[in-house]
Amino acid sequence: MLGPIFFAFVHLQAGINYYLSILGAAIFSDYLDGALAKIMQEETEFGARLDPLCDKIFAAWAVAACWRSLIIWPLNALAFIVFEGTLLSLSVALSWAKRKGQYHGKAQVKANSLGKWKINFQAAVCFCFLYNWTITGQYILVVANLFAVGSLIRHLTPKEKS
Asked: With helix as H, strand as E and coil as C, how does the chain read?
């Protein structure tokens, strides 16, 4: 849960080294926990749902921290908020319905490769905004939003296991 720390450092103007350290730690820990779970064969349904949720929480804090840079292209910012909100809402709704036994469909919200690419592009957007490369960050956010759409489609139409 490094999002609030990232937000605080940005607003306290702690310095680029602190921002990049938190951003790097968030990305590294995101990959490390998944890799360790696979290596140790400790993958769980809960972990598969928790990982994308943590990514969305960090992304929300990063958006709040970089809001001034983000609103230069308001439709891009709105698309980001809508896609992340939709993914989060879908996750909560599916988890609740499955737990209550009210959903038996194929849709699922688990970490997937498109979501991993999306969070990497979102981290690159933060990096760009921290260095005041605002326009470059906006273009990268367009790409991240496209990966968000792909991830949403993958959640709604998961691959059949052979």
From this structure: CCHHHHHHHHHCCCCHHHHHHHHHHHHHHHHHHHHHHHHCCCCCHHHHHHHHHHHHHHHHHHHHHCHHHHCCCHHHHHHHHHHHHHHHHHHHHHHHHHHCCCCCCCCCCCCCHHHHHHHHHHHHHHHHHHCCCHHHHHHHHHHHHHHHHHHHHHHHCCCCCC
